[in-house]
What does this fold into?
Amino acid sequence: MHMPLSDTLGLNLLAANQHQAEHNREHFEAWNLLCLNVMSSPGAGKTSLLERTITALAPQLEMAVLEGDMTTQLDAQRLEAVGVPVVPITTGRACHLDAAMVSGGLRQLQARLNPADLDLLWVENVGNLVCPAEFEVGEHLKVALLSVTEGEDKPLKYPVMFREADCVLITKVDLLPYLSIDVSRIEAHIHAVNPEAEVFQLSASSGAGLEAWHQWLLAATRAHRCRAELDPGDPNLVNASGSAPSSGPSWA
Amino acid sequence: MHEVDMTKCLLLSLQEWKRGQEPQTPVVTAVHLQVGEFTCVEPEALRFTFAAAVQGSWLDGSTLEIESVPLRARCLACSSAYHPDPERAYRSPCCDRPMEEIVSGRELRIRSVDYSLPHQTSQPAAVPPR
It folds into this structure.
């Protein structure tokens, strides 16, 4: 007998990815580190900025990078050169990192170091302004980059990315004298879709504006650690093999 | 075409639901989704990839029903709801405020599944919403 039934699921379409992202975040909590997901279109300057920022903050923060790249390991090599541990994640056909890929990267990272020694974990996503916005990897904060050469209206054309970002970096501002771009309009468009976004204008090439961004990062890392110390998680959350139980609290 | 990855994720999520039905094997006739306008998902592309992905799987023969949910925001100055227009930089037409509170349009939800249980003897309790 076939009896028609209907179940109300109310599940997120991306529930499977969401579960893995929460699992990753539980690891981050147990290791007491802040994880940032860095996203932008290809060529906005993610790797150049990380080179500068990691070099500048290395005396104060222990950092590592999970480096998403569709086909090459060129960016991973550039970041290794500034003296930070980098795990390349080659995504192949996929145009974004998902939580399972990041989980695989974390296992490789654990083979090289103890993540509990880190303060900050960078996840450099694949260059793309569309899908990385929907695929959480377990990050605490999303950072989106937009270079001035991309034009004033990108926040309106890719609104989901800029709505989801906690922090937006307007990059390559050293090129402004050569462009007919009004940077205040870029900023206005970002705030139109996301009034709460922190916005910094900077140039990894000239160094302009980097100091304010670095101060924001240091404050975010400190705030994260204070929160963790006020609410210490279960130290047994991560067992000897490094795998955390699939259920448990997660900080979102 | 990230709808391929979206579809993979949808199938994994449905797989989790199916495991909850064990030892019975549900025959799914329709999967109902709600897809918000303010997401990175194109319903047509999702339908296309779903049809291709379920061929030969336990979901073969099922249809994907997509309900589009329009983007709605609330103006925090006057509380009126509006449809944010990209041409107006998503700002409220009443008070020219930025898009602060999104009321709907971010949905990416599996709303329900229509199915039958071959050779079933008793009707199982519905899965509680998660």
In short: Residues 71 and 88 of chain A are 10 Å apart (CA to CA). Chain A touches chain B through 38 residues (CB under 8 Å). The first helix of chain A runs from residue 15 to 31. Confidence is low (pLDDT under 50) at residues 235-252 of chain A.
